[in-house]
Write a structure and sequence with these properties.
The complex is a heterodimer. Chain A is mostly helical. Helix content of chain A is 82%, strand content 0%. In chain B, helix 2 runs parallel beside helix 3 and helix 9 packs parallel to helix 10.
Chain lengths: 114, 262
């Protein structure tokens, strides 16, 4: 993890310009509501050795991360998507994902209501 | 530009100067006033803070502003200039010294604004959505997408072009919907539970002849080599990547012919 912003400004601004700041605040709220459940899903899929669900959930998180410009979070999700269940075996990449999520969530919340 | 200085002359000089370069400014006489402006949601591309102010000094104000706007470029304005900026924990992006030199101010501002350039030409970066597109090019659209964020965003973008779309949240539902009523186009997410977009496309293509089925546009966040080929092999007609870029979506929709059979 680094000190770099968790949310890429240019991406976030472009999203606001495209969809409207008010809508983006709502969209961010949807993400903040869904993501913890999806991360829990990822853990459950890993525990159940459900490779398909693991990959799909990681993919979804990556996709949402990219939408908001949460680049570090998205790249961690992408690593899980590409690595599949095997990726979850070494170290605790899910904990890293969670940490990146917390960082992204905090910034997203601030940006969405700025 | 947000200008915070307890000295009215300094405020006036900075306001006049930045106005000359086409940068509207907001002057705040106290840190409290500045914080209130930022908290109220006013947007600033840059802030110039005087170091020595009663109530709260420039450094303390900078910390408060940072907490509110992590990426707002902050410029320290002080009689000691950069020397004083040395022990400000790098919170300032630049320093200006008094008396103010016009060229130094200009270089500092343009330097900082260029660094945050992706934000500056905002209008150019995000193409305007054409609200009249659906009127000129009406389409019956099915959006097959399971992820709530992606679903909402796609609907929003379509809505801004005047389109409404039906939603299917997995491949099975998509195939069923296509069987139930005529669509001109399906925006098909590839990764979905129950049945993925590839399988759904295969089934749609197997069940209906090309002229009697909607055009299928794959939407995928993979962008991996071979990804596009996979979608086309499954029978999809076009392919765009996620996050959706408006110009790509518009281009893909323009290729869709409204069906005459229904």
């Amino acid at each position: 993890m680094s000190d770099a912003p968790a949310i890429d400004q240019a991406t976030f601004r472009a999203l606001q310009d495209t969809a409207g700041a008010e809508f983006v605040a709502e969209l961010a709220a949807t993400f903040l509501e869904d993501a913890p459940r999806m991360i829990a899903d990822l853990r459950a899929a890993s525990a159940a050795q459900d490779a398909e669900r693991f990959r799909r959930t990681a993919h979804s998180l990556k996709s949402n991360g990219l939408t908001f410009g949460a680049l570090a979070f998205a790249s961690q999700a992408r690593a899980l998507e590409l690595g599949g269940l095997a990726a979850a075996k070494s170290g605790d990449p899910l904990a890293t994902l969670e940490a990146e999520y917390r960082r992204a969530a905090a910034e997203l919340e601030a940006l969405a209501h700025a | 530009v947000l200008v915070v200085d307890d000295n009215a002359t300094n405020r006036r000089v900075l306001a006049l100067q930045t106005a000359k370069w086409g940068m509207p400014s907001k002057a705040a006489a106290t840190p409290g006033e500045a914080l209130a402006a930022v908290q109220s949601g006013e947007a600033f591309d840059l802030a110039i803070l005087d170091m020595h102010m009663p109530e709260m000094d420039g450094l303390a104000l900078a910390r408060r502003l940072r907490a509110l706007r992590p990426h707002l470029p902050l410029v320290l304005f002080s009689s000691l200039g950069r020397r004083e900026a040395g022990d400000t924990e790098g919170i300032f992006d630049a320093a200006l010294s008094k008396p103010l030199h016009q060229s130094h101010l200009f270089d500092t501002l343009t330097g900082l604004l260029a660094r945050t350039a992706p934000e500056a030409p905002r209008e150019a970066a995000a193409p305007r959505l054409d609200a009249g597109m659906a009127g000129r090019h009406p389409l019956r659209i099915l959006l097959a997408e399971d992820n709530a964020v992606n679903q909402k965003l796609a609907l929003r973008i379509l809505q801004q072009m005047g389109y409404r779309a039906d939603v299917a949240s997995n491949g099975l539902e998509a195939v069923e919907s296509v069987g139930r009523q005529p669509y001109d186009v399906v925006l098909m997410d590839v990764q979905m539970p129950e049945m993925d977009g590839l399988e759904a496309a295969r089934r749609i293509c197997a069940q209906w002849q090309a002229a009697r089925r909607p055009r299928i546009i794959a939407m995928t966040a993979n962008a991996m080599q071979g990804d596009r080929e996979q979608c086309l092999e499954a029978g999809m007609d076009d392919y765009i990547t996620k996050p959706i870029r408006v110009e790509h979506l518009v281009e893909a929709l323009q290729q869709v012919q409204a069906r005459e059979d229904a």
